[in-house]
Amino acid sequence: MLDAEEASLHARLLTILPAATAGSQLFLNAVNSPNSTARYSHEDADDLFSSAQRCMELRAELGLDVAGSVADNFLIACREAASGDAHRRGPRKLAEWLLTKITS
Fold it and tell me: Is the separation of the CB atoms in 21 and 40 below 8 Å?
């Protein structure tokens, strides 16, 4: 189950991230963002967030390291996008960072 979920998440991100570098709010979603902000999110944002959470849960259940996984990196980007940090990266920079992380 974990392999299938991670492969699906990875493939979907590889498809979506190049377009997200144009500024799409891929990292804001109904779970980690205020409703007023989340409504401007990419149409797949909630589904990707849920998939990443499932991957993290499955990894934890299996006793596997979660740090550095595709799901972990995606959730890091989501947390940063939703943070109040004045120096946080915007959606373009986060998409570029994540694309680099999952392709290297």
Answer: no
